[in-house]
Amino acid sequence: MKTIKQAILGFGLLACLVSCQQNADHAQNDARHTDSLRIVSLNGTVSEILSDLGLEKQVVGTDVASTYPESMKNKPKVGHNKKIPIEGVLALQPNLIIGTQQEVTEETKEQFKNAGIRMLLFDQEFSVEGTKNLIRNVSDSLKHTAKGDSILAKFNSDMDKLNAIQVESKKPKVLFIYARGAGTIMVGGKGTQVDKVIALAGGENVAKDFPDYRPLTAEALVAYNPDVLLFFNSGLSSLGNEEGLLGIQGVKETNAGKNKKIIAMDGQLLSGFSARLPLAIQELHSKIY
User: Which residues, if any, are the signal sequence (predicted)?
Assistant: First the structure.
């Protein structure tokens, strides 16, 4: 009987040692896989996730929207995700290109496919669940599931803390304006990223009569009569900040203009729907209320 017990214990110990060795081998293989990566990221939110996963050193280039963390600004830029010059990307000698399905054109996809470069393109839905799905899909695809679990745990914890946000029954009417100088002033309609985050922060996007973006006219601005005018930091700056904005026709006739309720936020934080989404919601809520 003693011999049988010893044999069983020995077998169990051997199985454990084999399992532990297999896990160690997997970890070693994953590390080798990570070390060999040369990534070009074509999406600011994907770049954030790569950094959170500890893969920033493997990123050799990004699109112009990859501005967080601050160190990402120092990476070589390959243009805007919808206007990517393939020659500039190939010059960085990547072996993996990562982006989102919605932003990379079919022509660009075909060019990279013909060049023999592996691509990972993910769906990005601008919602809380969409953010979690993107984090999960990127981390799983790059064999960093455990780290992805850690990011998601913090994200869920931060979202839970937002339950204490007080939302008034009469929500502030918010108008998001995308500006690149006085010559390019657009307003964000329904279905845009900013439309979604305004709702999450307890505001009401007044530009619900059209999808996507359209040029803003003085007449439409007065008709919308927003309580709050919302900008990216760069957009407000391009108009000469608050003083320059108040000089634009129609602004002073709105409640926002009369009360100087003009707010601005970092563009990637506000519209990226990254792991920092809880921070974006909290900051926007505090500004509009």
Answer: 1-24
Query: How does the average pLDDT of the chain come out, rounded?
Result: 90
User: What CATH number is associated with residue 174?
Assistant: 3.40.50.1980
In a domain, 237, yes or no: yes
Question: Is 99's pLDDT higher than 50?
Answer: yes
Indicate if 211 and 281 belong to the same structural domain: yes
> pLDDT, tens digit, for every residue of 230-240?
999 999 999 99
Count up the domains in the chain and report the number.
Answer: 2
Tokens (6 digits) for 80: 């805007």
Q: Which of 135, 162, 189 is the last residue of a domain?
A: 162
Which residues are CB-contacts of 240 (< 8 A; sequence separation ≥ 6)? 247
128-182: per-residue pLDDT in tens? 999 999 999 999 999 999 999 999 999 999 999 997 676 767 899 999 999 999 8
Domain that holds residue 266: 165-288
